[in-house]
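Bumping with the actual sequence this time:
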Amino acid sequence: MPDFSSEMVIENVKRFWPWVLIPAGLYVIPNLLSALVPGPHRKPKLNFKDKTVLITGASTGLGRALAFELYARGAKLILTARSIDKLKELCEELKGSKIKNRHEPVYRYLDICEPSDLEKLVDLSLDGKTIDVLVNNAGLSNRGPVSETPMSVHRQVMEVNYFGHIEVTRALLPYIPDTGCIIVTSSVQGRIAVPYRSAYSASKHAIQGFFDALRCEERHDLQILMVSAGYMNTGFGSKALDTSGKPVQKEDADQAKGYTAEYSAQRVVDAAENREIELILAPFSNRIGIFLRWLWPSLFYFFMYKRGLKDEYGKKK
């Protein structure tokens, strides 16, 4: 029979406590010390009630779910996308729901690859001059080997995921107060690259770099929440471009098993409300991947290579 005497328990605690306390300390101490550093995390909680929120890519997926979540919290919504019909339908659903919100949602056409009259969107806000929260959510992915992906696909993905968000942000930044927030829907692939997603991974690394630089400039006190999302079951993967530049029209198995749009939207809005600046919206295994990329790069790349061999493109080799 195993020995569970008090002496044995004490001995085991002495043996293993460093392996528990050291990682815990590495997490807890920086979080406690961060309270001493100036920044948006020291501001009061962000209350979305009676705040103007502009969402790009609001017609489907996470953008649509964010609209419902923010509407439920009392925000004045300005919903933008390319599909006017879907935006109109979304606004009607919001107004016809049981959610109590005295601010009627409005919608406008916006192609972030060719944005125009962005300042006119500010006229739709509650006071006609303030966008309290900007949600950069529109996105596009790709599928295919680097050797077969043409530059046209790289440019198209970069236009949506990088240049488009930069132009929208730069145009609206003067109207966003320091008490407001910019939410950026990025990806775990903005931290670690994944095989056969080169254009998408590159664009997400780029947008991470842009907003990290913005944090360090004249708007240090402005909250910028970078959402590094993992797989979400939103239909996003089926719209990814193949090597011919056409949507693949089929969902990844991993995507289909991902978080729901509703759960993801709640997590994002909660993080913004709590003045967080980074949210890894993904399982623990993804966090391990980000850590391993820093700790042991060669091992990480080998694992990614082995993963790529299981992909449909890797199996063709």
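The tokens above came from a reply further down the thread. The chain has a mean pLDDT of 91.
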